[in-house]
Design brief:
Length: 317
Protein backbone atom coordinates (compact mmCIF):
# COMPACT_ATOMS: atom_id res chain seq x y z
CA UNK A 1 0.00 0.00 0.00
CA UNK A 2 1.15 3.54 -0.62
CA UNK A 3 2.41 5.57 2.35
CA UNK A 4 -0.21 8.30 2.69
CA UNK A 5 -1.19 8.40 6.37
CA UNK A 6 2.00 8.79 8.37
CA UNK A 7 2.79 5.09 8.82
CA UNK A 8 4.72 4.12 11.96
CA UNK A 9 7.51 1.63 11.30
CA UNK A 10 10.75 0.65 12.98
CA UNK A 11 12.91 1.51 9.97
CA UNK A 12 12.63 3.03 6.50
CA UNK A 13 15.02 2.39 3.64
CA UNK A 14 15.72 4.86 0.84
CA UNK A 15 16.68 3.47 -2.59
CA UNK A 16 17.00 6.14 -5.26
CA UNK A 17 18.24 3.76 -7.94
CA UNK A 18 16.68 0.29 -7.48
CA UNK A 19 17.06 -2.48 -10.03
CA UNK A 20 15.62 -5.76 -11.13
CA UNK A 21 18.58 -8.02 -10.40
CA UNK A 22 19.18 -10.75 -12.94
CA UNK A 23 21.69 -13.15 -11.41
CA UNK A 24 23.47 -15.48 -13.82
CA UNK A 25 25.37 -18.36 -12.19
CA UNK A 26 28.49 -19.40 -14.12
CA UNK A 27 31.16 -21.55 -12.49
CA UNK A 28 34.71 -20.43 -13.39
CA UNK A 29 33.50 -17.40 -15.32
CA UNK A 30 36.23 -16.30 -17.74
CA UNK A 31 36.36 -12.96 -19.54
CA UNK A 32 36.78 -13.29 -23.31
CA UNK A 33 35.72 -16.93 -23.37
CA UNK A 34 32.48 -18.85 -23.96
CA UNK A 35 30.73 -19.24 -20.58
CA UNK A 36 27.87 -21.64 -19.93
CA UNK A 37 25.05 -20.49 -17.65
CA UNK A 38 24.03 -22.94 -14.90
CA UNK A 39 21.16 -20.95 -13.39
CA UNK A 40 19.33 -17.64 -13.90
CA UNK A 41 17.15 -15.82 -11.39
CA UNK A 42 15.42 -12.45 -11.64
CA UNK A 43 14.18 -10.56 -8.61
CA UNK A 44 13.49 -7.02 -7.42
CA UNK A 45 16.55 -5.48 -5.86
CA UNK A 46 18.50 -2.39 -5.01
CA UNK A 47 20.39 -1.92 -1.76
CA UNK A 48 17.56 -0.48 0.32
CA UNK A 49 15.07 -3.02 -1.03
CA UNK A 50 17.41 -5.82 0.05
CA UNK A 51 17.83 -4.27 3.50
CA UNK A 52 14.08 -3.91 3.95
CA UNK A 53 13.39 -7.51 2.91
CA UNK A 54 15.87 -8.88 5.45
CA UNK A 55 14.56 -6.68 8.26
CA UNK A 56 10.98 -7.70 7.50
CA UNK A 57 11.96 -11.37 7.52
CA UNK A 58 13.50 -10.87 10.97
CA UNK A 59 10.21 -9.57 12.28
CA UNK A 60 10.63 -5.80 12.07
CA UNK A 61 8.13 -3.34 10.61
CA UNK A 62 9.70 -1.63 7.62
CA UNK A 63 8.87 1.03 5.05
CA UNK A 64 10.56 1.69 1.72
CA UNK A 65 10.86 4.71 -0.52
CA UNK A 66 12.87 5.99 -3.45
CA UNK A 67 12.07 5.93 -7.15
CA UNK A 68 10.48 3.13 -9.20
CA UNK A 69 9.69 3.15 -12.90
CA UNK A 70 5.94 2.75 -13.08
CA UNK A 71 6.11 0.60 -16.24
CA UNK A 72 7.64 -2.42 -14.45
CA UNK A 73 6.97 -1.97 -10.74
CA UNK A 74 4.87 -5.12 -10.41
CA UNK A 75 7.63 -7.37 -9.05
CA UNK A 76 8.48 -4.79 -6.40
CA UNK A 77 4.84 -4.31 -5.36
CA UNK A 78 4.43 -8.07 -5.07
CA UNK A 79 7.55 -8.38 -2.89
CA UNK A 80 6.41 -5.60 -0.57
CA UNK A 81 2.97 -7.14 -0.22
CA UNK A 82 4.41 -10.60 0.44
CA UNK A 83 6.72 -9.37 3.21
CA UNK A 84 4.39 -6.79 4.73
CA UNK A 85 6.61 -3.85 3.79
CA UNK A 86 4.98 -0.41 3.62
CA UNK A 87 5.40 0.86 0.06
CA UNK A 88 6.27 4.54 -0.07
CA UNK A 89 8.12 4.48 -3.41
CA UNK A 90 7.60 7.40 -5.78
CA UNK A 91 6.61 6.12 -9.22
CA UNK A 92 8.34 7.91 -12.10
CA UNK A 93 8.08 7.64 -15.88
CA UNK A 94 9.83 4.78 -17.62
CA UNK A 95 11.31 1.46 -16.54
CA UNK A 96 13.24 0.56 -13.42
CA UNK A 97 16.69 -0.49 -14.60
CA UNK A 98 17.95 -4.06 -14.84
CA UNK A 99 21.28 -5.07 -13.33
CA UNK A 100 23.12 -8.20 -14.41
CA UNK A 101 25.18 -10.04 -11.79
CA UNK A 102 27.45 -12.86 -12.89
CA UNK A 103 27.87 -15.07 -9.84
CA UNK A 104 30.78 -17.50 -9.88
CA UNK A 105 30.44 -20.02 -7.03
CA UNK A 106 33.69 -21.77 -7.93
CA UNK A 107 35.78 -18.62 -7.50
CA UNK A 108 33.36 -17.12 -4.94
CA UNK A 109 33.14 -13.80 -6.72
CA UNK A 110 30.48 -11.70 -8.44
CA UNK A 111 30.78 -9.45 -11.50
CA UNK A 112 28.24 -6.61 -11.64
CA UNK A 113 26.98 -5.03 -14.86
CA UNK A 114 24.92 -2.04 -13.71
CA UNK A 115 22.72 0.09 -15.94
CA UNK A 116 22.36 3.79 -15.06
CA UNK A 117 18.63 3.94 -14.27
CA UNK A 118 15.91 6.51 -14.90
CA UNK A 119 16.40 10.19 -14.12
CA UNK A 120 13.82 11.62 -11.67
CA UNK A 121 12.48 15.14 -12.27
CA UNK A 122 12.73 17.99 -9.71
CA UNK A 123 9.06 17.36 -8.94
CA UNK A 124 9.85 13.70 -8.25
CA UNK A 125 12.57 14.78 -5.81
CA UNK A 126 10.14 17.05 -4.00
CA UNK A 127 7.64 14.20 -3.74
CA UNK A 128 10.34 11.96 -2.28
CA UNK A 129 11.14 14.49 0.46
CA UNK A 130 7.45 14.77 1.27
CA UNK A 131 7.04 10.97 1.29
CA UNK A 132 9.99 10.56 3.66
CA UNK A 133 8.49 13.14 5.99
CA UNK A 134 5.29 11.09 6.24
CA UNK A 135 7.02 8.15 7.88
CA UNK A 136 7.27 8.00 11.67
CA UNK A 137 10.38 5.94 12.35
CA UNK A 138 13.50 5.98 14.54
CA UNK A 139 15.86 4.62 11.84
CA UNK A 140 16.40 5.45 8.17
CA UNK A 141 18.78 3.54 5.89
CA UNK A 142 20.06 5.58 2.94
CA UNK A 143 21.91 3.38 0.49
CA UNK A 144 22.97 2.67 -3.05
CA UNK A 145 23.92 4.62 -6.14
CA UNK A 146 22.41 7.88 -7.36
CA UNK A 147 20.37 7.94 -10.59
CA UNK A 148 21.31 10.12 -13.58
CA UNK A 149 20.66 13.83 -13.29
CA UNK A 150 20.70 13.87 -9.48
CA UNK A 151 23.59 15.72 -7.79
CA UNK A 152 25.93 13.73 -5.51
CA UNK A 153 24.90 16.05 -2.65
CA UNK A 154 21.40 14.51 -2.55
CA UNK A 155 22.31 12.13 0.27
CA UNK A 156 23.91 14.93 2.27
CA UNK A 157 20.71 16.96 1.98
CA UNK A 158 18.44 14.02 2.84
CA UNK A 159 20.59 12.98 5.81
CA UNK A 160 20.66 16.54 7.17
CA UNK A 161 16.88 16.83 6.81
CA UNK A 162 16.25 13.49 8.51
CA UNK A 163 18.64 14.17 11.39
CA UNK A 164 16.92 17.51 11.96
CA UNK A 165 13.68 15.50 12.35
CA UNK A 166 15.24 13.26 14.98
CA UNK A 167 15.95 10.22 12.82
CA UNK A 168 19.03 8.02 13.19
CA UNK A 169 20.75 7.33 9.89
CA UNK A 170 22.65 4.39 8.44
CA UNK A 171 24.45 5.32 5.23
CA UNK A 172 25.78 2.79 2.72
CA UNK A 173 27.08 4.36 -0.46
CA UNK A 174 30.42 5.22 -2.04
CA UNK A 175 32.42 7.77 -4.01
CA UNK A 176 31.31 11.38 -4.24
CA UNK A 177 27.94 10.63 -2.67
CA UNK A 178 29.65 9.25 0.44
CA UNK A 179 32.11 12.14 0.67
CA UNK A 180 29.35 14.71 0.45
CA UNK A 181 27.03 12.87 2.88
CA UNK A 182 29.73 12.75 5.56
CA UNK A 183 29.28 16.51 5.90
CA UNK A 184 25.87 15.78 7.49
CA UNK A 185 27.39 13.28 9.98
CA UNK A 186 25.20 10.17 9.57
CA UNK A 187 25.16 8.03 12.70
CA UNK A 188 26.45 4.80 11.12
CA UNK A 189 28.25 4.15 7.84
CA UNK A 190 29.15 0.79 6.31
CA UNK A 191 31.83 1.00 3.62
CA UNK A 192 33.55 -2.12 2.41
CA UNK A 193 37.33 -2.14 2.57
CA UNK A 194 37.72 -0.91 -1.02
CA UNK A 195 35.24 1.95 -0.53
CA UNK A 196 37.05 2.99 2.65
CA UNK A 197 40.40 2.93 0.86
CA UNK A 198 38.98 5.15 -1.90
CA UNK A 199 37.53 7.50 0.71
CA UNK A 200 40.78 7.99 2.64
CA UNK A 201 43.00 7.78 -0.45
CA UNK A 202 45.28 5.06 0.89
CA UNK A 203 45.74 1.31 0.84
CA UNK A 204 44.72 -0.17 4.19
CA UNK A 205 46.89 -3.15 5.04
CA UNK A 206 45.88 -4.83 8.28
CA UNK A 207 43.39 -4.24 11.05
CA UNK A 208 45.25 -1.34 12.65
CA UNK A 209 45.14 0.65 9.41
CA UNK A 210 41.43 -0.02 9.02
CA UNK A 211 40.72 1.09 12.59
CA UNK A 212 42.81 4.23 12.17
CA UNK A 213 40.92 5.13 8.99
CA UNK A 214 37.61 4.50 10.75
CA UNK A 215 38.62 6.84 13.57
CA UNK A 216 39.18 9.67 11.09
CA UNK A 217 35.49 9.33 10.17
CA UNK A 218 34.41 9.21 13.81
CA UNK A 219 36.21 12.52 14.31
CA UNK A 220 33.83 13.99 11.71
CA UNK A 221 30.74 13.13 13.72
CA UNK A 222 29.96 9.57 12.65
CA UNK A 223 29.13 7.39 15.67
CA UNK A 224 29.89 3.94 14.25
CA UNK A 225 31.90 2.77 11.25
CA UNK A 226 31.43 -0.80 10.06
CA UNK A 227 33.97 -1.98 7.50
CA UNK A 228 33.14 -5.20 5.70
CA UNK A 229 36.23 -7.14 4.62
CA UNK A 230 34.90 -10.23 2.81
CA UNK A 231 36.24 -13.51 4.17
CA UNK A 232 38.17 -11.58 6.83
CA UNK A 233 34.91 -10.53 8.45
CA UNK A 234 33.92 -7.04 9.48
CA UNK A 235 35.37 -4.38 11.76
CA UNK A 236 32.92 -2.46 13.99
CA UNK A 237 34.43 0.76 15.34
CA UNK A 238 32.97 3.30 17.77
CA UNK A 239 34.70 6.01 19.78
CA UNK A 240 35.34 3.63 22.65
CA UNK A 241 35.30 0.13 21.16
CA UNK A 242 36.63 -1.98 18.32
CA UNK A 243 35.08 -5.36 17.55
CA UNK A 244 36.11 -7.61 14.67
CA UNK A 245 33.57 -10.29 13.72
CA UNK A 246 35.04 -13.40 12.11
CA UNK A 247 32.73 -15.62 10.04
CA UNK A 248 32.89 -19.42 9.95
CA UNK A 249 33.61 -21.21 6.68
CA UNK A 250 30.41 -21.60 4.66
CA UNK A 251 29.50 -22.74 1.16
CA UNK A 252 28.88 -19.61 -0.87
CA UNK A 253 25.96 -19.64 -3.28
CA UNK A 254 26.17 -15.96 -4.24
CA UNK A 255 27.72 -12.83 -2.74
CA UNK A 256 24.94 -10.62 -4.17
CA UNK A 257 23.41 -8.50 -1.41
CA UNK A 258 25.82 -9.60 1.33
CA UNK A 259 26.61 -6.02 2.32
CA UNK A 260 22.92 -5.08 2.31
CA UNK A 261 22.16 -8.00 4.62
CA UNK A 262 24.90 -6.78 6.97
CA UNK A 263 23.30 -3.33 7.04
CA UNK A 264 19.96 -4.94 7.92
CA UNK A 265 21.64 -6.87 10.72
CA UNK A 266 23.20 -3.67 12.07
CA UNK A 267 19.80 -1.98 12.17
CA UNK A 268 18.19 -5.05 13.75
CA UNK A 269 20.88 -5.03 16.42
CA UNK A 270 20.28 -1.36 17.15
CA UNK A 271 16.52 -1.83 17.31
CA UNK A 272 16.99 -4.68 19.79
CA UNK A 273 19.46 -2.72 21.92
CA UNK A 274 22.26 -5.26 21.51
CA UNK A 275 25.77 -4.48 22.77
CA UNK A 276 28.40 -3.97 20.08
CA UNK A 277 29.73 -7.54 20.21
CA UNK A 278 26.28 -9.06 19.75
CA UNK A 279 25.34 -6.54 17.08
CA UNK A 280 28.50 -7.56 15.21
CA UNK A 281 27.57 -11.23 15.49
CA UNK A 282 24.02 -10.61 14.30
CA UNK A 283 25.04 -8.43 11.35
CA UNK A 284 27.63 -10.98 10.26
CA UNK A 285 25.06 -13.78 10.58
CA UNK A 286 22.65 -11.83 8.34
CA UNK A 287 25.40 -11.51 5.72
CA UNK A 288 26.33 -15.20 5.99
CA UNK A 289 22.71 -16.23 5.57
CA UNK A 290 22.48 -14.10 2.44
CA UNK A 291 25.50 -15.66 0.73
CA UNK A 292 24.41 -19.22 1.46
CA UNK A 293 21.06 -19.08 -0.35
CA UNK A 294 19.52 -17.54 -3.45
CA UNK A 295 16.59 -15.17 -3.13
CA UNK A 296 15.54 -11.91 -1.48
CA UNK A 297 15.69 -11.58 2.29
CA UNK A 298 16.60 -14.18 4.91
CA UNK A 299 16.25 -17.94 4.56
CA UNK A 300 14.92 -18.47 8.12
CA UNK A 301 15.26 -17.09 11.63
CA UNK A 302 16.61 -20.44 12.82
CA UNK A 303 19.41 -20.35 10.26
CA UNK A 304 20.38 -16.78 11.17
CA UNK A 305 20.42 -17.59 14.88
CA UNK A 306 22.52 -20.71 14.28
CA UNK A 307 25.02 -18.74 12.21
CA UNK A 308 25.18 -16.06 14.90
CA UNK A 309 26.46 -18.67 17.36
CA UNK A 310 29.26 -19.58 14.95
CA UNK A 311 30.56 -16.04 14.52
CA UNK A 312 33.58 -15.28 16.68
CA UNK A 313 34.53 -11.78 17.81
CA UNK A 314 37.84 -10.18 18.68
CA UNK A 315 37.42 -7.34 21.14
CA UNK A 316 39.81 -4.45 20.62
CA UNK A 317 40.47 -1.32 22.65
Amino acid sequence: MQATRSPMVEAVTVTLNPAIDQTVVIANFTVGQVNRVEQVTSQPGGKGVNVAAALADYGHTVGVTGFLGRENDGAFAALFAQKGITDGFVRIDGLTRTGVKVSDPAQQQTTDINYPGQAPTPANLDTLSHRLGQFHTPWVVVSGSIPPGVPPTIYRDLVAMLIARGRQIVLDTSGDALRAALEAAPHIIKPNIHELEALVGASLMGQDAVVEAAHTLLSRGVQMVVVSMGKEGACFVTAGRVVVARPPDVTVQSTVGAGDAMVAGIVAGQLRGLPLTECARLATAFSLDRITHMGVGLSSLAHVNALMEQVTVDRGA
